[in-house]
Design goal:
Blueprint lengths: L1 E3 L7 H10 L3 E2 L7 H10 L6 H15 L4 E5 L10 H11 L5 E5 L6 H12 L4 H29 L7 H15 L3 H16 L10 E7 L1 H5 L7 H7 L2 E5 L3 H13 L5 H10 L11 H13 L4 E7 L3 H17 L3 E6 L5 H22 L18
Parallel strand pairs: 1-2, 1-3, 3-4, 5-6, 5-7, 7-8
Helix pairs in contact: 1-6, 2-3, 3-4, 6-7, 6-8, 6-10, 7-8, 12-13, 13-14
The chain binds iron/sulfur cluster.
The site of iron/sulfur cluster (SF4) has 12 residues, from helix 14.
């Protein structure tokens, strides 16, 4: 069995490690591209969510490389994610592909069902093999995110445009190649020190922007047209509201073990003056995190959403009130298969211009941490 899965940012690095260490052969689809999107769009219903279309393109490209099994996350709640897996299965079967599909539903306390589906996927494995695979995958995931967080801080200050992006790409390759815990930690430390060693502007206090929105669009640079890099190269320090490690910790591990979801409760509390109900996806988080960024003194918020995404349409209708009440500029960017780099870059430039004028008018309200070494990320 040759297993594949959809791309979502750098998720392929820990997922490849997880499945390979469980004894599976993994076919990682080629990185999402115009071809992926064309294949997905051509073969999906017109009004399907954009992430579904890109997923379908990823699967077709993986089948072309020999994959014959698909792993896909399931979902619950009022938005369409709950039936993504089934719709994708039908689309691919109608196209004549012969494959097996494994849909891993969110555990929500039903640990056994998740284990059953995982057992069907990986077959007989020992407990120590599972523990080892999970440790390696988790170490890779946390290393990838430590590198991404540091890159977002340093990129805003780099002297030569593109140098952080280049250093990050090499560090990610090294993490992907590393096989043991020791090799992963070495690759992480080397990567962190290369990124923080990039020549930087001195005495520069960057603007700070928080990114909120639907998880797939926030994490997948092909779909969001590399918003995080674009802003960084305009001299803006970007903080994402969603990192996959936090999301897995909150929605999978704590959920499985039935721990409290403290940070989700906090975000819901922040959103509560504007939105009190779960609307699916990350709608409530988009509102709560925007409030949080305003309170932390950020210069602005960029809200990312796929076209027709129901939870984010709700958030988008609320964010102007958050912006007015808390006096923070918020810009929504909606993506579909017709979105183009130039349009997005123009809007980002206008937004950065606006927030930098506001910063000059208000004085230096955005607080620069000045801590570009991000010492906490260097843990062994
Ligand atoms: S969160 Fe939005 S994009 Fe994602 S499945 Fe739900 S409606 Fe579609």
């Amino acid at each position: 069995m040759k297993v594949t899965f959809p791309h979502m940012g750098n998720l392929y690095i820990p997922l490849r490690a997880l499945f390979e260490n469980l004894g599976l052969t993994v076919i990682v689809p080629p990185k999402s591209s115009k071809r992926t999107l064309t294949l997905g769009t051509r073969n999906s219903p017109e009004f399907a969510c954009l992430p579904l279309k890109v997923n379908v393109g990823n699967f077709i490209e993986a089948f072309e490389l020999g994959a014959d099994a698909v792993v896909m996350a399931g979902g619950v709640g009022p938005c369409r994610f709950g039936y993504y897996g089934e719709v994708e299965r039908e689309i691919l079967e109608d196209l004549g592909y012969n494959f097996e599909m494994f849909i891993i539903e969110p555990p929500q306390g039903r640990f056994r069902e998740v284990l059953h589906e995982l057992g069907r996927l990986v077959g007989r494995v020992t407990a120590s093999q599972v523990i080892h695979a999970v440790r390696i995958a988790w170490e890779k995931l946390s290393s990838v995110e430590a590198l991404e967080r540091l890159a977002a801080k340093v990129r805003a200050r780099e002297l030569q445009k593109g140098s952080v992006t280049k250093a990050l790409a090499q560090a990610l390759k090294d993490i992907d190649k590393a096989e043991t815990l020791g090799e992963i930690r070495t690759a992480r430390l080397d990567g962190l020190s290369t990124i923080s060693g990039v020549p930087q502007r001195e005495d520069y206090t960057p603007l700070r922007v928080g990114i909120v929105g639907e998880i797939y669009v926030v994490l997948e640079p092909f779909v969001n047209l590399d918003v995080e890099r674009e802003l960084g190269e305009m001299g803006v320090e970007v903080e994402r509201s969603i990192y996959l490690g936090d999301w897995i910790g909150l929605h999978v591990i704590k959920d499985m073990l039935r721990f409290g979801r403290g940070s989700l409760k906090r975000v819901k509390r922040l959103a509560s003056p504007y939105l009190q109900h779960f609307v699916g996806g990350h709608g409530i988080e988009s509102v709560g995190h925007s409030v949080e960024y305003a309170r932390k003194g950020f210069d602005g918020v960029v809200h990312l959403a796929p076209f027709t995404c129901m939870p984010e349409i709700v958030a988008e209708s609320i964010l102007p009130r958050v912006s007015k009440d808390l006096d923070i500029p918020i810009m929504s960017l909606i993506f579909d298969e017709h979105s183009a780099d130039t349009g997005v870059v123009t809007r980002l430039e206008a937004f950065v211009d606006l927030i930098s004028r506001r910063r000059s008018r208000l004085g230096n309200l955005g607080k620069d941490t000045g801590d570009v070494s991000y010492a906490g990320l260097y843990r062994r």
